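Translate structure to sequence.
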């Protein structure tokens, strides 16, 4: 299905009231049509994987088309040039998170980019680094504990960034790493406790929220269960 035809379908499914609702959740309404994520996922299943269609959809700069592009692209075909180009056009936290946790975290370049992007300055481009970390924590089942522990210093280095969309993503990455298994749970808690000593409201918020989440009984049960599953596969 040509990208132009897909865009026409998106416009037909658009809802201006949904756009107003998006704005209330801090989503940038610029070029938004008001198509829900479930509708986008349904449409993506109809389209199937198509790298060129994904490139064409993202180039339209339509909010929902950019998310749909992540859903239909093939991570094996994503290039470094594409990742950097798309990164520079992140203009809303939801597009950032969807692209990073649906597509970019499954590419061979994900681990290198999550580290490189922590040096970015624009808010959404820096958020992308930590959204990508969170995606890796959730989806990369082959990564070692050491690889995730090597990300913790980057989390600590950026915890004092007071910008809302950065600090929330830093928090998300820290919690995601801590939920993988017992070793990483301990490492993430240790990092959070170290962060509590920072002279930064942002760092203390990230730390206190992460400690609260990681200390919940249901989180501890999940981590213990993950540990048992890993041991059973050895």
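Result:
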């Amino acid at each position: 299905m040509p990208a132009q035809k897909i865009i026409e379908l998106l416009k037909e499914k658009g809802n201006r009231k949904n756009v107003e609702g998006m704005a209330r959740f801090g989503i940038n309404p610029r070029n938004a049509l008001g198509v829900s994520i479930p509708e986008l996922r349904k449409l993506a299943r109809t389209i199937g994987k198509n790298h060129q269609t994904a490139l064409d959809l993202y180039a339209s700069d339509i909010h929902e088309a950019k998310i749909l592009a992540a859903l239909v692209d093939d991570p094996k075909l994503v290039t470094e040039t594409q990742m950097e180009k798309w990164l520079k056009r992140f203009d809303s936290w939801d597009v950032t998170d969807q692209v990073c946790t649906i597509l970019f975290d499954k590419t061979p370049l994900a681990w290198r980019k999550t580290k490189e992007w922590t040096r970015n300055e624009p808010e959404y481009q820096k958020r992308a680094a930590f959204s990508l970390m969170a995606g890796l924590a959730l989806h990369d089942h082959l990564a070692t504990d050491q690889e995730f522990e090597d990300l913790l210093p980057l989390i600590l280095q950026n915890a004092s960034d007071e910008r809302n969309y950065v600090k929330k993503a830093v928090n998300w990455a820290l919690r995601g790493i801590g939920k993988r298994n017992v070793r990483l749970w301990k490492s993430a808690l240790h990092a959070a406790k170290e962060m509590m000593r920072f002279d930064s409201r942002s760092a203390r918020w990230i730390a206190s929220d992460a400690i609260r989440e990681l200390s919940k009984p249901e989180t501890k049960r999940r981590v213990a269960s993950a540990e048992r599953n890993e041991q059973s596969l050895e």
